[in-house]
Write a structure and sequence with these properties.
This protein is α/β, with parallel strands linked by helices. The chain has 13 helices and nine strands. Strands 1, 2, 3, 4, 5, 6, 7, 8 and 9 form a nine-stranded mixed β-sheet that branches. The relative contact order is 0.09.
Amino acid sequence: MSVGFLGLGVMGRPMATNLLRAGVSLVSWTRSGVPLDGAEQARSVAEVFDKAGTVLMMLANGDVIDEVLGRRTAEFERLVNGHTIVPMGTTSPEYSAGLERAVKEAGGSYVEAPVSGSRVPAENAQLVAMVAGEEAARIRTLIAPMVRQAVDCGPVPNALLMKLAVNTFLISMVAGLAESFHFAEGYGLDPALLRDVLDAGPMASFVSRGKADMLVDRDFPAQAAIADVHYNNRLITAAARERGIASPLLDVCQELFAETEGLGLGKADMAAVVSAMTARTERGIRSGNSRTGAGSADGATPPS
């Protein structure tokens, strides 16, 4: 049978394209209705399940997954019975564990396979997948054309927990990089020179180089959008609160990404978080307050 693919957005489309290039027969569906060259375009989600035994999903969040699968309706059982469901986006670990139970109760199989990476790694098949579930070995083989590596994380929801741990580093790293450029700007340093120094040093990475270019140009075409990163940040801090784990860096990052989204930059790349820092500095200057850190210029306090 063909493999199903639900969700052809910024990440899903290049991921599905790489499967096609590897010779996988795909039947796809997307809410936008924009077809994927080389794939059979289904007219409905039900048609995907009629033609595919395994259905990969790159959908925005749990609410969208529930809507697409008709969860808590009779249609859900009809769709998933006898099928393997593989969400590859990011949801809360609790949501994934609950969806696994629902899928199994309906007679289906479930493997979570969230990926780490943004649009360009997706295009170049350089994503890293974290896979959990009883059919993890088979799914790792299936998704190999989309990723650089697929790592078995054990039972559900360990893959989602691992993804949140990875994103903790990513989010704090990019926020720190943005702050370094904001600091340099405050002293009138050449941002291009700062980029060159960082690129030559031991902290340089694929992520830092790409984001540094954006920060130099002050142009933020989305690889990982502010709104999506803010959503992921909220998942991390909520999971930390659930287990009583301190998350001081991500608490501050959550404020910064919320402020950046509030500036109307939700669709800009995550490096645009520098805009929240600039806004804090400007507020501090106007108020005559040189202490422009979190909680000083705007009365913000870490989320509880």
